[in-house]
């Protein structure tokens, strides 16, 4: 939290490097304040605000998720909002018009009423003036007629014309000339509070009538109400001006307006509810089949190909459902066809293998007889008999492998797992490969056999896998040492077979496991193994729930690693042995030594995870391969603790320490060997590849 | 086939539903022309009362403005005239007592300055002039007045503040007639007739004027407790003990939500017993009847504790009012001189002869009077010479006349008689030589001559009020016939015969020159037919104190020779005019009933 603000603090200061000169002292303070404000508001720097935002947002999150996921809610809410807006707008417009209309009518009627009243007041004043003018003014030259009673009478007579419709108020003129007359009001109106001061000033300023809206206040308990007040300056019989006001309560108009308001509000509410309901219904009609289709599609993708949509009617939705169902049906049909085809092929292979066996036995016996009797043949025929025996051997092993593979394909392979010590298996295999190694001049070393390496496994299958690997390594090792390494950590055991032969080209690390794969497909298969050995080994590893992976680099040799769970049915998380050995050319810092590294990247690791079928797909993509190969490169043994929990690391991070380590390795020998081997690498490679499948 | 029929039935039903729905909707969309019955709550109509808001004197007001402002403040609703006092100097404000009297001028007071050239000396005199119409005294009793009003007002300029103020002012309040009518209202106070002749006691109305906008309820209660006006005092008594007054801390009296009015009195009233207290409560209820109709019950408290409480219905058992007696029949004389009657308060036009000798036409009658209990009747013969009294019982014989007149002409003989509530029969003898007023007690044949020491002239008509305390007389003197209200004073004489005197007669209609007919029309109200000087004959209501009541006058009628009204205001006004017997129902025009003369309600 403080790190946030600390990190963002330099940003505003760095944002205006050219300004500090121009800033004055008060300005800088303002600027600092502004900075603080910006910082707090813009970056949400204040922890309190952020906590508050989080606190507010938390209960809203499910709602927002619902909002994102539910199209029905979206449509209905939008419809409600829009219709509400329209209804409100309409209400304002209509109420405004009604109000104006009501007011117009009222104002016109009131004005004519008030004008009549003003005329009456003036007329009465003139009449009384003429009556008293003869005797009243003559006495002492000044009119001293009392207007007290006259004015009360006037107000009474004016107001008696419209009880409840209007009230009459008189107020003294501003200069209060003549007698100091007090305000008069009819109908319990409070005159001073009801007539606005602005209107009084306006009336004082001229003889024309003026009007204003006001709130009529009563002296009794009656509630005050809005009203229209029209006033005029009129002269009393003495010729002194006073202000005469007509007050028209707008009670009736307000009642009408509130009636309209109530009506509009009710109608608007109904309309909004109706529109919301319509939207809900319509969206429901559309969304329900879509939801159903989504559910069915999910189930189809999960493999339940029998699922179909329910289709009723003939509308667009029904057509969608029909098309969907047709698609699912076709899919189902095609998948079934393919499955049948594949099953038929496997069956064919199996049948062919079996059928070939019986004549082959006969051919074998005959060939044995011929072979036994080759001494008697001429040299050419004897050579043919030897060739025949060899090829029949090969044919037999090919048939056996085919049968094994077809057993795997048919799912007939059964695992007979029991706790075994892998060291014994390894020693047996190594001693079995001793004659071949001697012939090649290769020494097979076993590393990591100080402690028992026990795992639950099928000894026969593991031995077959390891034999295949060791024989391959000896055959392609070009006379160099072969290292068999054992390790156990966490829930896994691993055996890695390392050779320093021609290695693998980029991309070959995955392909080596393909059936009948060879480095040069154009070459006929005349020597070596059947081409099925690694495939069977891979299947064996898979059967154990383990991994069989290959790594290699051109000229740097290769390493094959078998990783098995310590107990059957336990998922693998990592391997005790890194797939790429520490003494690889890349780790020794020799990557850039050879321009022959086509991709510039000597990394040719391949991970064929027996457990993750998805990796087959990624194996085809070199880019995805590197990413997917990340977790297996993790070295649990390099971790402190038991390594039971393998944390995946980016490959770069494992490379850095191993690279620094690799500087101490006996790289010179490898380097020389690599360079040396490279010149003749082609032929050897060809040979190696040709015989790679051999076990 | 069956399916088709069912379909047709369903569609018919749908059509029926739709039709009924449309009908229902149409019913909602138009104004109802039928529906449930409901009572209508009457809201009292608000009068367009004009109120004057008194303004305090402005700075540097001229002397004329001060005088006019003061006069204007007198017409305002200011309680205690606080604003008006601001126009007076401090000493004058202390000495000025507005409650002492109210002078009503015909057109408001005019202020005439005298010697305006003295204005610079700081002393100025004005004269308030006008034509008096009436005065209201300290007891709030109204009295007609005449003559000119001429009172001095003196202003001085305060040496310190340089402001003009009034330092000499006439006591009391003065205002114009219409202002008076706006600001004051007439209310009857009720007391009991002191003769104690009947149970429950008969109440006597005593009209006074109070300011209608300044808490009239409290003011009326205070006035009621203070006692009757001077004129009525000798003839009435009050339920309130001497020295009773409203408790000092009493707030303005207002009835609570259930119409109960609590009247707190001081300790003096605490000595009164329950009967006395109920009399007080009845007086309060009768007095407040018209002023605040919301009062349904009165609780009298004294010295902090409740004394008694009385509901409106209970008040009529404690005391009675003349207006509470509803007449059964209207009586008059038909063309053959018989006493006939029609049912009162109906549109009945078919007269039936009254039972008894007078109804049988044995003697042709000129005028009649029926006792208030409608058991006895009195008739004056067609020549006006003899007065007969006969019970209203079929078959009873007509006795000898109880009174004979010796007047020379028919006009100078006996007037229409009148019964009071105790059964006394009043009649005047218009003999030019020897005018007399007689009282026949209990209808006996021994007439008592009533003393009329202050009466100057011949009594031409006599009507006694239901309370038996007040008597209305039309007195002729010279060309003038005026209506006088007198107070009946009754003393038991030495010889066992009472001495009856009519005292303090006062004019109720000073402006009428010729009063031709009159009748009581309420507790303190009469209906009068008369002519003003230089005017035409008119019919109007007057209060006994001479003021004009705040009710519309009856519709005009020409050639009225006799008029009768009941103190019960529901009974229609009846008159004998050139059209015969006519009736004025409430809110309508005069209607002809039948031929006949001398219509009277009982009394």
TrEMBL record, chain A:
Coiled coil: none annotated. Residues 351-568 form the Histidine kinase domain. This is Sensor histidine kinase MtrB. SMART domains: HAMP, HATPase_c, HisKA. It is found in: Cell membrane. Residues 1-26, 567-695 are annotated as: Disordered. Residues 284-336 form the HAMP domain. Residues 580-589, 677-695 have a biased composition (Basic and acidic residues). SUPFAM superfamilies: ATPase domain of HSP90 chaperone/DNA topoisomerase II/histidine kinase (SSF55874), HAMP domain-like (SSF158472), Homodimeric domain of signal transducing histidine kinase (SSF47384). InterPro entries: HAMP_dom (IPR003660), HATPase_C_sf (IPR036890), HATPase_dom (IPR003594), His_kinase_dom (IPR005467), HisK_dim/P_dom (IPR003661), HisK_dim/P_sf (IPR036097), MtrAB_MtrB (IPR047669), Sig_transdc_His_kin-like_C (IPR004358). It catalyses: ATP + protein L-histidine = ADP + protein N-phospho-L-histidine. It comes from Streptomyces edwardsiae. The keyword Cell membrane applies. GO terms for molecular function: kinase activity. The chain crosses the membrane at residues 71-96, 264-283. It is a multi-pass membrane protein. Its EC number is 2.7.13.3. Keywords: ATP-binding, Cell membrane, Kinase, Membrane, Nucleotide-binding, Phosphoprotein, Transferase, Transmembrane, Transmembrane helix, Two-component regulatory system.
């Amino acid at each position: 939290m403080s790190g946030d603000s600390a990190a963002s603090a330099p940003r505003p200061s760095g944002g205006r490097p050219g300004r500090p000169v121009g800033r004055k002292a008060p300005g800088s303070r303002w600027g600092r304040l502004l900075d603080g404000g910006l910082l707090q508001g813009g970056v949400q720097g204040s922890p309190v605000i952020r906590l508050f935002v989080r606190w507010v947002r938390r209960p809203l999150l499910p709602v927002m998720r619902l909002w994102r996921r539910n199209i029905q809610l979206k449509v209905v809410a939008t419809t409600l909002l829009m219709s509400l807006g329209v209804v409100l707008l309409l209400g304002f417009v209509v109420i405004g018009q009604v109000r104006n209309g009501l007011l117009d009518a009222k104002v016109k009627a009131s004005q004519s009423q008030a004008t009549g009243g003003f005329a009456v007041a003036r007329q009465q004043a003139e009449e009384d003036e003429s009556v008293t003018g003869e005797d009243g003014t003559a006495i002492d030259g000044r009119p001293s007629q009392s207007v007290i009673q006259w004015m009360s009478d006037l107000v009474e007579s004016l107001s008696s014309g419209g009880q409840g419709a209007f009230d009459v108020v008189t107020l003294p003129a501003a200069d209060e000339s003549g007698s100091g007359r007090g305000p008069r009001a009819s109908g319990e109106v409070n005159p001073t509070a009801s007539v606005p001061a602005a209107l009084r000033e306006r009336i004082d300023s001229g003889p024309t009538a003026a009007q204003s809206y006001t709130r009529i206040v009563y002296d009794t308990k009656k509630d005050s109400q809005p009203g229209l007040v029209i006033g005029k300056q009129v002269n009393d019989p003495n010729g002194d001006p006073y202000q005469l006001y007509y007050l028209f309560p707008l009670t009736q108009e307000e009642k009408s307006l509130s009636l309209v308001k109530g009506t509009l509000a009710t109608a608007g509410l109904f309309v909004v509810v109706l529109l919301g309901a319509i939207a809900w219904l319509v969206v429901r009609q559309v969304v329900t089949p879509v939801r159903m289709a989504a559910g069915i599609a999910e189930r189809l993708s999960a493999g339940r190909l029998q699922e179909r949509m329910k289709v009723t009617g003939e509308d667009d939705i029904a057509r969608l459902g029909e098309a969907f169902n047709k698609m699912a049906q076709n899919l189902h049909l095609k998948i079934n066809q393919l499955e049948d085809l594949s099953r038929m092929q496997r069956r064919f292979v199996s049948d062919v293998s079996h059928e070939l066996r019986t004549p082959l036995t006969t051919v074998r016996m005959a060939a044995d007889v011929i072979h036994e009797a080759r001494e008697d043949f001429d040299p050419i025929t004897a050579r043919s008999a030897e060739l025949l025996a060899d090829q029949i051997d090969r044919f037999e092993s090919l048939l056996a492998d085919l049968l094994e593979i077809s057993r795997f394909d048919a799912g007939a392979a059964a695992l007979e797992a029991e706790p075994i010590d892998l060291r014994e298996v390894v020693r047996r295999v190594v001693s079995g490969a001793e004659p071949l190694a001697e012939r090649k001049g290769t020494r097979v070393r076993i590393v990591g056999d100080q402690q028992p390496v026990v795992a639950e496994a099928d000894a026969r299958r593991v031995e077959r896998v390891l034999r295949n690997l060791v024989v391959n390594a000896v055959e392609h090792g070009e006379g160099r040492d072969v290292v068999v390494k054992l390790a156990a950590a966490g829930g896994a055991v691993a055996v890695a077979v390392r050779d320093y032969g021609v290695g693998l080209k980029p991309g070959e690390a995955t392909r080596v496991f393909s059936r009948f794969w060879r480095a040069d497909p154009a070459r006929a298969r005349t020597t070596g193994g059947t081409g099925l050995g690694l495939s069977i080994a891979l299947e064996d590893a898979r059967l154990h729930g383990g991994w069989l992976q290959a790594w290699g680099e051109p000229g740097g040799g290769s390493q094959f690693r078998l990783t098995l769970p310590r107990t059957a049915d336990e998922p693998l998380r990592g391997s005790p042995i890194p797939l790429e050995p520490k003494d690889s050319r890349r780790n020794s810092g020799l990557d850039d030594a050879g321009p022959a590294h086509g991709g510039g990247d000597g990394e040719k690791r391949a991970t064929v995870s027996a457990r993750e079928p998805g990796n087959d797909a990624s194996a085809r993509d070199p880019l995805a391969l590197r990413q997917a190969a990340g977790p297996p490169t993790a070295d649990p043994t390099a971790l402190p603790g038991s390594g039971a929990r393998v944390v995946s690391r980016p490959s770069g991070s494992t490379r850095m320490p191993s690279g620094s380590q690799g500087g101490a390795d006996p790289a010179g020998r490898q380097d020389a060997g690599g360079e040396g081997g490279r010149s003749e690498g082609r032929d050897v490679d060809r040979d190696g590849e040709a015989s790679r499948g051999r076990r | 086939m069956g399916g088709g029929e069912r379909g047709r039935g369903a569609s018919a039903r749908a059509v029926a539903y739709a039709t009924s729905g449309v009908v229902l909707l149409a019913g909602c969309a138009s104004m109802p022309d039928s529906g449930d019955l409901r009572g209508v709550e009457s809201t009292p109509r608000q009068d367009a009362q004009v109120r004057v808001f008194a303004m305090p004197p402005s700075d540097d007001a001229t002397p004329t403005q001060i005088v006019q402002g003061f006069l204007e403040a007198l017409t305002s609703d200011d309680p205690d005239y606080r604003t008006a006092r601001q126009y007076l100097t401090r000493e004058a404000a202390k000495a000025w007592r507005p409650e002492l009297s109210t002078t009503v001028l015909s057109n408001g007071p005019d202020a005439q300055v005298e010697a305006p050239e003295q204005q610079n000396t700081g002393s100025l005199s004005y004269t308030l002039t006008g034509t008096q119409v009436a005065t209201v005294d300290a007891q709030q009793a109204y009295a007609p007045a005449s003559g000119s009003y001429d009172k001095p007002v003196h202003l001085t300029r305060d040496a310190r503040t340089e402001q003009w103020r009034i330092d000499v002012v006439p006591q009391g309040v003065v205002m114009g007639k219409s202002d008076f009518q706006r600001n004051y209202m007439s209310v009857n106070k009720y007391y009991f007739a002191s003769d104690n002749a009947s149970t429950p006691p008969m109440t006597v109305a005593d009209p006074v004027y109070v300011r209608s906008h300044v808490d009239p309820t409290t003011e009326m209660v205070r006035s009621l407790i203070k006692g009757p006006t001077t004129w009525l005092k000798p003839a009435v008594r009050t339920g309130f003990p001497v020295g009773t007054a409203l408790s000092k801390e009493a707030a303005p009296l207002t009835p609570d939500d259930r119409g109960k009015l609590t009247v707190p009195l001081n300790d003096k009233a605490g000595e009164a017993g329950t009967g006395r207290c109920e009399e007080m409560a009845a007086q309060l209820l009768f007095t407040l009847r018209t002023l605040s109709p919301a009062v349904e019950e009165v609780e009298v408290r004294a010295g902090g504790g409740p004394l008694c409480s009385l509901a409106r219905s209970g008040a009529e058992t404690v005391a009675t009012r003349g207006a509470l007696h509803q007449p059964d029949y209207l009586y008059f004389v038909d063309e053959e001189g018989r006493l006939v009657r029609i049912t009162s308060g109906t549109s009945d036009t078919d007269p039936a002869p009254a039972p008894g000798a007078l109804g049988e036409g044995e003697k042709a009658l000129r005028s009649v009077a029926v006792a208030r209990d409608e058991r006895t009747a009195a008739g004056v013969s067609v020549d006006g010479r003899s007065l007969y009294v006969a019970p209203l019982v079929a078959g009873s014989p007509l006795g000898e006349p109880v009174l004979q007149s010796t007047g020379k002409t028919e006009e100078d003989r006996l007037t229409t008689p009148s019964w009071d509530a105790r059964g006394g029969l009043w009649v005047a003898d218009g003999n030019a030589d020897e005018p007399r007023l007689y009282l026949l007690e209990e209808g006996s044949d021994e007439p008592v001559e009533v003393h009329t020491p202050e009466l100057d002239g011949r009594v031409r008509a006599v009507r006694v009020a239901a309370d038996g305390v007040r008597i209305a007389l039309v007195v002729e003197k010279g060309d003038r016939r005026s209506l006088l209200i007198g107070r009946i004073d009754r003393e038991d004489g030495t010889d066992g015969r009472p001495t009856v005197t009519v005292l303090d007669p006062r004019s109720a209609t000073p402006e009428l020159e010729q009063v031709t007919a009159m009748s009581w029309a309420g507790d303190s109200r009469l209906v009068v037919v008369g002519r003003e000087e230089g005017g035409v004959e008119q019919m109007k209501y007057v209060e006994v104190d001479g003021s004009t009541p705040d009710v519309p006058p009856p519709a005009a009628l020409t050639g009225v020779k006799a008029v009768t009204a009941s103190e019960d205001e529901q009974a229609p006004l009846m008159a004998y005019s050139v059209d015969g017997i006519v009736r004025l129902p409430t809110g309508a025009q005069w209607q002809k009933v039948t031929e006949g003369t001398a219509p009277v309600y009982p009394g």
